[in-house]
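From the shared-data thread, chain only:
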Amino acid sequence: MPARCWEDQTLTEPYHLEPDPSPRRKRRLWRDKFREAFRGVKLGVRGHSSFCVHFFFAALAVTAALVLQCDWLEWCLIIGCIGLVFTAELFNSAVETLFHGLDPQTKEQVHGCLDIAAGAVLVASLTAATVGGIVFGRQVLIIFRLLP
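Structure, as tokens:
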């Protein structure tokens, strides 16, 4: 009986692949890819007011790092957290832009996506605030000689 399974003709027939009917697009140059990426950042930043809040706190974090003379590892943590929050906010902006282009019936079905994207920004922001509290709190404690 198992030998009959191997005799199935569908396994021995050669595969016939259909040629792709769509014409191939010309490869884009790297500079064009970067230009489009920077345009996307510009569209994401300009279209949403929450970036003002994120830019304010990013500037505040960079200023605090300069004043408190953070070392290179602390700078890496701070810059990484700033990038994390900006990235989450850009993804949130992309989801919002897609959402606003939908018809009303589809909007009702995928309304939870906006909440999930906003939740991602909240998690990223809380993570950045926690890391900032640890880094800057440690530096303040060192200044007041409460830590060696």
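The chain has one domain: 39-143.
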